[in-house]
């Protein structure tokens, strides 16, 4: 019985150490970026030895995978499926952008670093696919075809982009509502509300 208890306690301590390492890496990825963060940095931030980091994560890919999984679990991407229930195209767009921009605001520290470092890496494929699907759901509300549909889809992808939100809100000083109004005008060639 005592042996079983000791093994359980040891497993709990290992889980706690692993979690501490993941938390340290997330903090560093948000502040320094993925590329600038080393395993030595993570060890120092977590207050563990470098060997301990490698015991839990044999390489940076394993650590980044654990971090991104936990980060997106805590900050799930907005689900665009319910947007389909909004029949009016402009209302769907405004609702979708409102949820999207709230998400961008919430995840700004991490996304500004991660996108700068690994935008085109395989790790980001699901992230980009999500926004592609969101643009398709928004576009489905318009009866556009052919070239007009392609232009609409491009405009919607631009409107959903973290970089667009960051440019409009952080660099140009717009509020989220002002950015939504501007994207509405640019996207669907319709008046603001």
Task: For this entry, give a set of tags.
single chain; 193 residues; mainly alpha; Tetracycline Repressor, domain 2; 2 domains; 10 helices; 74% helix; elongated
The secondary-structure class comes to: mainly alpha
Major sheet description:
none
Strand content: under 5%
Estimate the mean pLDDT confidence.
91
- Cα-to-Cα separation, first versus last residue: 69 Å
Structural domain tally? 2
Helical proportion, percent range: over 70%
Low-confidence stretches: none
Give me the count of strands.
0
Task: Please describe what this structure looks like.
This protein is an all-alpha fold. The protein is built from ten helices and no strands. Helix 1 (2-31) crosses helix 2 (39-46), helix 1 packs across helix 6 (108-118) and helix 7 crosses helix 8 (146-160). It starts with a helix and ends in a 5-residue tail after the last helix.
Short description:
By secondary structure, the chain is mainly alpha-helical.
SSE map:
Layout: H1 2-31, H2 39-46, H3 50-56, H4 60-74, H5 89-106, H6 108-118, H7 125-139, H8 146-160, H9 162-171, H10 176-188
